[in-house]
Each structure stands twice: as structure tokens, then as C-alpha cells.
Amino acid sequence: MTAHLTARPARALLIVPLCLALAGPVLAAAAPKATGKERPFEPPDLYASTYRPLPSRPTLIRNATVLTAVGDRLEGGSVLLQGGKIAAVGREIAPPADSVVIDARGRWVTPGVIDAHSHLGVYAAPEVDAHSDGNEITGPLSPGVWAEHSIWPQDPQIPLALAGGVTAQLILPGSANLIGGRSVTIKNVPGRSAQDMKFPGAPYGLKMACGENPKRNYGAKGQSPASRMGNIAVTREAWTEALAYRQEWEDYQRKKAAGKDTSLPDRDIEKETLLGVLDGKILVQNHCYRADEMLEMIQLAREFGYRITTFHHATEAYKIADVLAAEGICAALWADSWGFKMEAFDAIRENVAMVDHAKGGCAVVHSDSAQGIQRLNQEAAKAMAAGRRMGYPLKEEDAIRWITLNPAKALGIAGQTGSLEPGKMADVVIWSGNPFSVYTRADQVYIDGALLYDRTDPARQPVMDFNLGMPGMVGGDR
Amino acid sequence: MNRRMTAWVSAMVFLTCAAAQAETVAITGARIHTMGPAGTIEGGTLLLDDGKVSAVGKDVTIPAGARRIEATGKVVTPGLLDSLTTLGLVEVGAVEGSNDTTATEDRFTAALDVVDGINPRSILFPITRIEGVTRAVVVPRPGPGLLAGRGALIHLRTEGSGWLIKSSLAMVAVLGEAGAQRVGGSRAAALLELREAFQDAVDYGANRAAFDRGDRRPYALSRLDLEALQPVVQGETPLLVAVDRASDIEAALRLARDFRLKLIVAGGGEAWMVAPALAAAGVPVLLDPLANLPASFETLGATLESAARLHQAGVTVAFMTNDAHSVRNLRQAAGNAVTYGMPWDAALAAMTTVPARIWGIADRYGTLEPGKDADVVVWDGDPLELTTWPEHVFIRGTEVPQDTRQLRLRDRYKNFTPGEVPPAYRHGPTPPGATP
Q1: Of B287, B387, B404, B407, which to mutate for an interface test with A (greatest number of A Cβ within 10 Å)?
Q2: Which residue ranges form the domains of chain A, and what is each CATH number?
Q3: Residue B111, pLDDT above cutoff 90
Q4: Any CB–CB contact under 8 A between B250 and chain A?
Q5: Is residue B304 included in any domain, yes or no?
């Protein structure tokens, strides 16, 4: 594309790391005053998911090669979707009355693909300044902002991800800031608002970043952080203040319980998010490339008593795969994006497989790209092949976890989705063949049992408002 | 310590193999996609001798002493060519000193020759060539002007000076949004500036002596720029225009017709919408088959079916990554072109025979025929598949070693156990070329 050929060489990658895109409008963070509510870090239910599963019929998919993402591969297998849930997985399942029966001979069935790192909606297409909503780049700490309030639900890239089998994704703020704000997990179902897309019950994430991006952005403005040591210092200050704020609330509650005279602490939107992390309710999604910096972030988390759920990008995760496995931290990785900046210089094709190989390792293949999200299955295939070349006996039933169950773990939704197990959400893809082949496409995508994408049926292909009537557009599948 | 020794010994084996320059090699038993008149040969033999293909077929006599590569069940193709890259111009994208892709403040435009910026010792070369890409077009990215300068065609090898195949390969220009931005915000102004440049070049070419006497009207471009444009206005060197929007492609076609330029469209997000005009004018399109995002208002019509639609309409299509670090993923893009409707043979041709014709090297490269350069890849399966790997890569008859900085990083950290000698001591022999 011309824009890539000319304007932004650093982004001219097959997979465009959006973490490099750091332009943003200038807004002042507003902090509403106390509401009188007595718990400091519970946002009002007003913001909870308004997503409702779409109507579905019981659907039996039979004669397929089924990858369950919990290690099984069934040849001639069946999967029954009923009431929006996986009702059964096995070799012979009798179709319930009124069910749609799909003969999937020669085709493969997997859980829906989950992208653990996406900026769809917050960096919507077309990539005009008016759509650049991913970074609140006015100060290195912005825990008060929520990605969901930047999502444009009409982003025409959303249907492209659906055509690639994506059923859920984590939408994150960018990495301009050390603490960038709350991420949100969405169902990949177009809605009239981001709230209509929110994954019910999914925990919030907190986007944090180390390394080049924060120090470059603020150093260039003559502000702190201007160095990696500045990154750590400013981050520690933020958590120190969070602990003080928690103390303030604890003092208040203790005095109140003892019947002493006290006054309600001021409400602080930013600290509410940080306390959510300290309380284990908000999961830390930490952008971090270099091995040494990931080790530093682990120590920093220890100092303040929180856990890191996932390191994102983690181009050097293979250097510390043993530590990540022992700490129970997932690593969300590209298959082969490298070299676009210094901290991506040591990325290797075997990163995913080496993280996976460590006992207890949690490897995730992510996109961070509106291009890559359309074919995460292909990215996983390349990572699997690289692992095999170094002697790891990886099979499709292993590698499928990298784009299904493991990202579900990384997002804290593995109890609801990410594998084909009875009782889980019926988020399912029927592939035209082996999903690790370049020639394979998603034939059908089910979300909560509802058929929301069918490659042969234009009526089952969403077309966003922006695309309506546009020259060159021929349905949602492009 | 034991493991380290093993790694060292195996690295030495690679280097020993690599040292054998342009040997006689017989690749036997493979499916050979010759891409030439012999078509695809099942269970054929390919003979490489003195850097050239010397024989291919079912009944090839293998000379005594030839190195034999038993390749039954394998697939052999010509080495792949990426038709638009910045290989050799960049090590780390965001590290300015290592990035020579763009002359951001140069006073020259058309005269800029990318050859002087190419570093054939780039670590990207081994990383790219072990994956089957043996040749690449290298272009400068546009600086402040509409003309970026001259691209080149290279081999991905470092030995001696043998990396340059062809300089002054194409003159790179930009139109569309990016062109408009460079001349004050209007596409019409960009077209006018290019017309002025070509008019000046034509006038200068016919009046050099008068120009040297100071007896000519002022030109918009410098003397060196006008010199560089001579082969372009004479229709010898192609004008490669980065452009996406259908209407911008049509404007470029008008420009080329008026000045009798040899036009190549690069990008071409909406090229399929004007495919008949491109086919009629014989203008090739350099395409990234994966570029389907409506990333701007000039790519609203971009689609994964671009390659198929252009091919179907009779447009000449070659593939490009338009990148440096991800050139190795060129064949993934080609595989997707097939998934979205392009015939398999056409997709392979878009990385071999078609660019050979576009870039004027079809006499040496593109097919596996006697007399052609021995750029050859032995794949362990379908070359467009994601899980396929090249087992052997030859560039002009010399096998490239499976040795890259990235493989060394992998081997350093594979099986590392804390408490052992630190990783910094786990390294193999000095890479080739690092010592005099």
C-alpha cells in the first residue's frame, strides 16, 4: 500500500505492530468527585456488558477433525452446540430434535480464535487522525482511561477478524504510557456500542508498558521518564501512591467500623483501577520486550503485591521461558515480527515454541495488528513449524492452544471459553481444512452458538456502516 | 559443555559445506517446477554446474564426483524474488543510523542511487535467504520529493562483490495521498510537478550543450536529477509509481502515455478496479496480496482477491513485501493469493518468471533451464505452505549455510539451565565474513 511504501517505513511490516503508533489527541483526564459509594474500586454496573447472545438453533457438527484445545484430536468427531453452549464433544452424538446437522467431512473444528492483543476500534480504519484513539499520551500514567471508551464499534476491520475465525479479543490502550489504562475483552460481534460487545464477566485488564516506547515519548518532550530507570521509578511512584490510597480507605473503614468520626476519602478514578489490580480483580497486561526488563517487572510486581498475568510482545521471552513458566505468566507473542526497533532485534521464529516448551509454559500467539488478526491460525502454523524444526514434537492439537485456550487464560476467561468442553460458550470455528494450512479458511464462525459468519452466505457476513455503498466493497468478506 | 561442543561441530559442518563454491550438484527424485517449457517434472533430476543449471529432466546423466542430494518427495523451484524491498538499507527500523531507506532532507531526488546505500553484510541477508528468497529489488523510499531515486536488483549473498545484479533498475515515484502531501496537499499538483520534471528532462536531454553554456531556461530539477531521468523519458528504465487509488492509477497511466514511459504500478490496492486499462497498457502491478485493509481513503477497494482478479484480467502481477525484515514471509503472501483465487502456478510465477520479465533478467533467471543461473531451492513440501521449509538453498550454484544470528540465538538459549556457564559463553565459531 502506498502509505506503507512512503509515509511510515517503521510500520511497513507484514504484521504492523500498532504499539508503534503513538499519535493521540490531547485530553485532560477528568476525575469525578466522590459519589458516596463506600467501596473505592468498583465502577458502577452501568458500564457492565450489555452483550446478549444472538438467537441460535441446536447445531450438530459431525465427521470433522476436532481439536478441542485441551490436547485432544478427534477424527470423525462431532460437536454439539445447544443453548449457546458446547453441549457435547465426541465421536457419535445423536442430533437433538430441531437441530441443524452439518456434515463437516474433510473439515476441521476448533474453538473460536482469541486475539490477546488487538487495537481494533481504538485504532480503527481508515487510519485517519480522527480514528487515533489508542493512547492518552498526555502523561506517562493514565490508569483512569478505559479502552472501551475509545472503541468505534463500526470499525470495518472487525468483520475481517471475524472472517479469520476470531470470536473474542482483548482491546488494549497503546504503549505510549507506563500505565496506559484499562483494556477490555470483547466478543467479536458487531454492536451499536462497545458495551454491546463486552464479554460478559470478563475481568478488566490494566495495560502497562516498559522499554522504549514510554521513555521515548516522554523523553522527547523533556519529561520523565526519559530512560529505562525513569520507567521503573515512575511506575514505582504510581504503585506507592496506590498503596497510600488503599491505606486511606482502610483507615476510613476501620474508623467507621469503630464508630469514630471520619470522612469519606475523595474518589480517585485512577487509583480505583490500580486498587483493582492490587485486589486481583484487574489483570495486568504488560507490554515488555526484553528479557531483563520482564525480570525487573516481575520484581516490581512483587514489591507492590500484584501479579502480572501476561507479558505482551515479549520478543525475548525465550531467554527466560523457565522463569515465566515458574511464575505462571503467559507470554503473548508474534510468530515472526522482528527488527522494527532495538528491543525487537533478538526476536526469533522459535520464541513461541520455546515458551511453550518450558514445563507449565503459557504461550500465546497474538496479532497487535489488523492484518495479523485475520490469520492468527497461519501465524500459529509458522510458530509450530519453527518448533518442530528445533526438535519439539509439536502437533496441531498442541499448537491450537496458542490461539484459543492460552489467550483465554491470558484474558481470564478460560472458565467460559477457549476450548471445546461441555458447558463452555459455543464459540466455534469450522475450517475448510487443516487450520495450519495457508489454503484453509474459516467456513463458519459461531459465537455463543449463533452462526455469525458463513463464507458462502453474504447474509451471514457483517458489513459495517462505513462500508455501505463504498466503491469496491463486495460484502463483509474481503 | 558437551552440548556446546555438539553445536560447535554441527556449525563447522555447515561452514564446510558453505565453503564449497559453486560445486557440481545433482538434485534427484524431486518434483521440479522448472517454470519453463519443460513444465513440472515428477521425479526429475536437476544438475547444477559452475553456478548454472546444466541439465534438468527425467534422464539426466550425473557426472562422476557430483554431490548428490536425494530429494524424493521434495519440491524444487527457482529461488524466489521479492519485487519491492528495502533489504540492505535497514538493520533496525527505529534506529536511524542503521536505516538508510529514506533521504529525508536530500537536495537530490531522481539522481539518488540506492546501490550506494546497500549493505550486503546486513544480518537480514542470511535470515532471508535461508528461507528461499535469493533475489530482491531494493528501492529507496521517497523523501520530501515525488521522485525517490533509482532502485536496484540484488542477490542475497555477501561473497565478493557479487551481490549487485542490476543498478538503475527503476525510477521510483510516489503519487496518491503521499504524493499530494509532498507538494502542498493536492493530487493535481503532484501530477503537474511530475510532468514538469519529465518536460525538463526531455528538454535537457536535447540541449545539454546549451545548458552547460548557461543558455537554457531554468529547470525545476538539478543537472544530476535530469541526467538520471534520461533513460526514463527514453522509455528504457521503468517508472515505478507507488499508488493505490483507482483514479490515481488512471492518472499515472495518462502520464505514462503522454511521455511514453515504461510504467510499473506498486501497491495497487485498487488496481483490480482498473484492471482492463492496466492490461491494455501492458503495465505490471507489484502487489502485496495481503494488503486488504481500508487503511486509507485510497485503499477502500483493497481485497485479498486482488491478485486473483488482476491475474484473471490479464494484468502482469509480481509479488512484493515492501519491507525488509519480513521478506521471508513473501511465500505466505503468495499462498494467501492462491487461497483467494489465484492459480498456484501463477502465484509461484509472481515470485520467479514474472519478475524476471519485468526486471529484464529473464535470460538469466526465473526458470530452471540449462544455462540459467542456479538459484535453486529444495523444499520439504509445497513452497507456499506455512509448515514447509527449504532444506537447501543455492544462489548461483553456491549453497547458502543454515547459519544466521537468529539460529544462533535460538541455540544459545535452547536447553539453557540456570547455574550453567552464562549464555554469553555459549557461542559457535566466528561467522563467515567476520574475519579477513
Answers
A1: B387
A2: 2-52+112-419 (3.20.20.140)
A3: yes
A4: no
A5: yes
